[in-house]
Amino acid sequence: MALEEGPDRDGLESEDSTNATAAAEAVHADEDDDVSESAEAEAADAGDAVDEAEPEGEAGSEDDEPAEIAGSDESPAVTGPTAVTKALPMIEPVAEAESADVDEPVVEAEPEAVVDPEAVAEPPAAEDEPVAEAEPAVEEEPAVEDEPAVAPEPVALAEPVALAESAAVAEPVVAEPVTKVLPIAAAGGGRRRLSWKIATAVGAAAAILIASVVVAATSSTAASPKASHHKKAAKAAVLSLVSVTPANGAGNVNGAAPITVTYSGPVTRSTPLPTLSPNIPGSWQISKDKATFTPQVGFRQNTHVTVNVPAPAGTTTTAATSYSFTTGHYSMLRMDQLLAQLGYIPVTWTPTDPSGDISATDANAQLSAAYDPPAGTFTFDSGYPPALTNQWSVGTSNEITDGAIRTFEFDHDMNMDGVAGPHVWARMFTAIAKNQQNQHGYTYVWVTQAGAEHLKLYHNGRVVITSLVNTGIAGRSTADGTFPVYLRYTVTQMQGTNPNGTPYNDTVYWVSYFNGGDAVHAFPRGSYGWYQSLGCVELPYDGAGPGVAENVWNLITYGTLVTVVGPVA
Fold first, then answer.
1. Based on the domain organization, do 262 and 393 belong to the same domain?
2. pLDDT digits (tens, 9 = 90+) for 459-482
3. Residue 400 and residue 345 in contact, taking contact as beta carbons nearer than 8 Å
């Protein structure tokens, strides 16, 4: 390859300019003469020239630093008194810039680039004196300054690059820009350093390539939905049943509580969920190794519940695939609380904690409270006599709750038996949700047979009626005790036999039966306040307009308690 003479450089004011020009002409002459010779012959001649030109020391020793290659936007210059052309192997050249302390970064070269620098070397003008650089003949993209080293890629064979060797530090000479291909300092030590760095770069590139393949393979495996599906299926296949809560065979269970099935490992979407018998509305939630069923409205009292675990979920050889438990009874304490809330008993219930004030519209919470009532206190309403308040007992069946349940049953068109059975509880939950309060108020009737027999009627904590009455004669006496009203008439016929054996058939008004054939009713007599009846409590009645008997009847309702005290006849 013939080298063209470069353009004149302006501003070179070294006192050794004359010698530099002569040296440059000599180099060009030698190159023109030897252009037809092979690259190997040129390298040999150039080596001889270098040996002759060295002023002191041994050229190319490992102790000498190679000449500095400029790292500016201009193409780097080849330094040294003589330019030597060397053929490189198939790997693309890498620019190596070295100074006494800092290595310049290596810049990647483009394939098939032709190196055509002006190989005019000048002897040093002066130590550390700057030299003006020539303008590039062709506008090419300049090398990037301080660009980090890039691992070389295999490319086609590039044109030979002129390498400079010098034993001494020489002033750099600027050559024409090269398209991203930088010359390499080719001193003896520099060549070995070049080989080492090329080997290092190739090794780094190979390591990066291997790491990229490994990462790609790992990412492909992790991102594969099919592989993920198989893993989940494998996990689901090995699950075994650990436990069910409530436990197998448990009794007195809160039917509104969640049911939890625990497995030996995480539950997945492919794990078949258990089923319940009887089946009720609700939802299953999965969390780690547990599947939990939360009922919309739980199981009623005294229900036998079976939890069936599907076989595909897997069980241990000793574990049952179905568990069962039985719900408990509703609490009478909770019945007292609800009757008090609806005004059917003359007490006020206050929950100990605000959480005990359960939302009326939360059906499952109300059901749960029927099994497990919240804590609270009862306070009897003022104005009632001890004959009534002494009959109160919390959480147990007693005359007050018996009468209140009858009143509730009457209000809801139910058979009145005073028993808190399943139908009563079902209607009670509805009444709580709808806030169906007792519309009668609370009435209590107290009758004494001591002295002048009389009656007191309490309504909502106040005595509103007091009247003389007649009770039963000897042999037909009125029994002491407290009894709820179970049957009422405005008018009816009473038939029977008098003590002397004669029959009777009387028309009776404002009748309220409370104990068998005994009733509070109106009956005309000449006087009141002593034993005259055949067992009933007789109220004055003259048959003209509303009287005391009618007023009493209007305040009494089904379930009203009537208490009779005092000596019987």
1. no
2. 999 999 999 999 999 999 999 999
3. yes
